[in-house]
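TICKET: design request
STATUS: open
ATTACHED STRUCTURE:
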């Protein structure tokens, strides 16, 4: 009697079950099914996925979102402590209740869209939803890079629109008035309002970072507060080192802060000594001072926006503003402060028109010197 031929290689009957086998990179993957058709279908799906380069190891993709999010968070060593705290809050409040028990492979684009729709119906703000979705997208993208997902289902999900709020900035007079009210920290306020340093960067400045000769500070670190209140020193937000000048009028005050201090002492300190503490400073010093001025919606970060606004009002080019603020790109600066340049567009077009259509020689209109009249600068 001829030997029976197995017409479905890799499919074997085991008792009353059917076992399917698939091979990937020399490793055998098996799965058991109730029927032969189910086993054949699974095996073909695995082989097609391998051919397309989309095969995912089931042992990796079976992890739940809650477990993977913890692994992702533990590997985030490139962010400030305050940023990590924000991620934990969004996970616990918005993401884990919905996706925590789901396997990574079971989370779909539609499911995420429904989650956003429910959040809107429940009254969550657009900014809260967008920030929570950003964390979700990062977690799932890390799963793609780790070989646990073929694609990121969070990509392409429609998000609620947000109306960008114009950044509040102080005038020269308002900056001086505020500095006068923040008693004991006048130099800190004027320095922050004219250099644009972030709070964490100001807290991390040491006396050795100051060059009195060049009137500059070297900005390479930032201090944030950990979950237990500890101070954590880390690179700046953009992981870049920059040198920022400060006004010559502040030179005497900065010199006085450095005098008789060790090189590694904080440049700015709390009045009782020690590193600047944000919560203490804001509640006991800054907010009461703002209230005394009668100004509204002024936070410490307003001083950073003030620097940008005042620089632009004095004709500073976008590249200079971006460099001083420590933005990763000029596009970021334009996205935030581009509206402040709108008036300049009319001014420059008017200048162009005057040069083109008004009377005068070409030399007068373009201010171009002949080659013989150009001065060489060494």
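STATUS: resolved
RESOLUTION: sequence designed for all positions
ATTACHED SEQUENCE:
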């Amino acid at each position: 009697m001829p030997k029976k031929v197995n017409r479905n290689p890799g499919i074997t009957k085991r008792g009353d079950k059917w076992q399917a086998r698939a091979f990937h990179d020399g490793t055998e993957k098996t799965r058991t099914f109730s029927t032969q058709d189910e086993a054949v279908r699974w095996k073909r799906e695995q082989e097609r996925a391998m051919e397309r380069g989309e095969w995912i190891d089931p042992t990796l993709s079976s992890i739940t979102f809650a477990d993977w999010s913890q692994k992702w968070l533990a590997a985030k060593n490139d962010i400030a402590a305050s940023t990590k705290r924000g991620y934990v809050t969004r996970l616990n409040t918005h993401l884990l209740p919905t996706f925590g028990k789901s396997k990574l492979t079971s989370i779909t684009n539609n499911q995420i869209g429904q989650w956003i729709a429910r959040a809107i119906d429940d009254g969550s703000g657009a900014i809260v939803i967008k920030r929570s979705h950003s964390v979700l997208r990062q977690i799932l993208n890390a799963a793609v890079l780790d070989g646990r997902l073929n694609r990121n289902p969070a990509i392409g999900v429609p998000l609620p629109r947000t109306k960008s709020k114009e950044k509040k900035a102080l005038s020269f007079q308002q900056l001086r008035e505020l500095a006068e009210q923040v008693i004991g920290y006048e130099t800190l306020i004027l320095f922050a309002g004219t250099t644009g340093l972030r709070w964490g960067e100001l807290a991390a400045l040491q006396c050795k970072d100051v060059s009195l000769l060049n009137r500059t500070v070297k900005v390479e670190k930032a201090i944030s507060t950990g979950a237990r209140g500890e101070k954590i020193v880390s690179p700046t937000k953009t992981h870049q080192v920059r040198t920022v000048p400060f006004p010559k009028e502040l030179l005497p005050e900065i010199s006085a802060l450095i005098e008789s201090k060790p090189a590694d002492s904080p440049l700015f300190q709390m009045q009782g000594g020690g590193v600047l503490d944000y919560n203490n400073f804001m509640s006991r010093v800054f907010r009461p001072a703002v209230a005394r001025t009668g100004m509204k919606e002024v936070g410490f970060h307003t001083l950073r926006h003030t620097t940008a606004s005042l620089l632009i009002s004095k004709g500073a080019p976008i590249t200079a503003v971006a460099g001083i603020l420590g933005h990763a790109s000029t596009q970021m600066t334009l996205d935030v402060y581009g509206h402040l340049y709108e008036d300049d567009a009319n001014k420059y077009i008017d200048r162009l028109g005057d040069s083109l259509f008004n009377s005068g020689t070409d030399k007068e209109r373009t201010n171009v010197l002949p080659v013989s009249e150009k001065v060489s600068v060494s």
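CLOSING REMARK: Strands lie at 11-14, 17-24, 27-33, 210-211, 216-219, 221-225, 231-235, 242-245. The radius of gyration is 30 Å.
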